[in-house]
Design brief:
Shape: extended
Structural class: mainly alpha
Number of domains: 1
Number of helices: 6
Helix content: over 70%
Strand content: under 5%
Radius of gyration: 22 Å
Order of helices and strands: HHHHHH
Largest sheet: none
Length: 149
């Protein structure tokens, strides 16, 4: 049975769910903003407690990573991500979730071959890309400064 492009478009329109792009963007914005506001609030509190700015940023990062890892292990972060979408992909929380989730899924394979090995299934490429990018940028900087100087 062949159908015309116009008939196919009509069928697709009839059976496709309505777009929720605006609502999804708003949820992502609010959730991502809430994560960032939480981090900023923590940083402000640490600053008022007399913690140095660099130390405070480190404490906030480690706290967000630990909190995300705990929420991922408890299954809460995935439920939040289901509703908030890209808003939970704020770099620190998204990366922490991406490292912890594969490790938890592979825990039945044992600690070394399961959890520990799978934890680096996402971290490995990120580390390689980061080191490669740093080397490339350093090389470009070296060439530009030597050529210009």
């Amino acid at each position: 049975m062949q159908i015309s492009p116009a008939e196919y478009a009509a069928m697709a329109k009839r059976y496709a769910p309505p777009s929720t792009l605006g609502k999804d963007c708003l949820k992502a914005f609010l959730c991502g903003g809430a994560i960032c506001a939480l981090a900023q609030g923590m940083l402000e509190g640490l600053s008022k407690a007399g913690v140095a700015a660099d130390t405070g940023r480190l404490i906030v990062m480690l706290t967000l990573i630990a909190l995300t890892a705990i929420l991922t292990a408890l299954g809460v972060f995935d439920k939040l991500a289901k509703h908030a979408g890209a808003g939970t992909a704020v770099p620190i929380t998204g990366f922490a979730n991406a490292v912890v989730a594969p490790a938890l899924e592979s825990k039945n394979e044992g600690f070394v071959l399961g959890t520990a090995a799978q934890m680096f299934s996402i971290a490995g490429p990120v580390i390689v890309f980061g080191c490669s990018s740093a080397a490339l940028y350093g090389l470009i900087y070296f060439i530009v400064t030597k050529a210009g100087g």
